[in-house]
Amino acid sequence: MNRELSATGPAYLYDLVADDLARRIETGELAVNTPLPAEQTLARQYGVSLGTCRHATKVLRVRDL
CA-CA distance, 57 to 48, in Å (whole number)? Predict the structure, then answer.
């Protein structure tokens, strides 16, 4: 499954992935206080590199969702 990433302006891919993951948590698609899917799984879902997913999960930890 490839998730669609879009931005209204210039953005880094890791920010787009982090934003989408945050949205999925906020809407309940991903449960709060449970582990995210493996980074390899997220990379496949979003069609991005493993490094991009690692950076996105770091961004989420800083946001403290």
Answer: 13
DSSP symbol at 47:
T
> Can you tell me the distance from the alpha carbon of 39 to that of 45, in angstroms, rounded to the nearest whole number?
10
> Could you tell me the pTM of the whole model?
0.82
Q: What is residue 36's predicted lDDT score, i.e. its pLDDT?
A: 93
Q: Where are the alpha helices (DSSP H) in 1-65?
A: 13-26, 39-46, 50-63
From residue 5, how far is each of 9, 17, 33 by CA, in Å?
12, 7, 24
What are the residue ranges in the chain where pLDDT is below 50?
A: none
> How far is residue 22 from each of residues 17, 34, 43, measured CA to CA in Å?
9, 13, 16
Per the CB < 8 A criterion, the answer to whether 5 and 20 are in contact is yes
DSSP letter assigned to residue 9: S
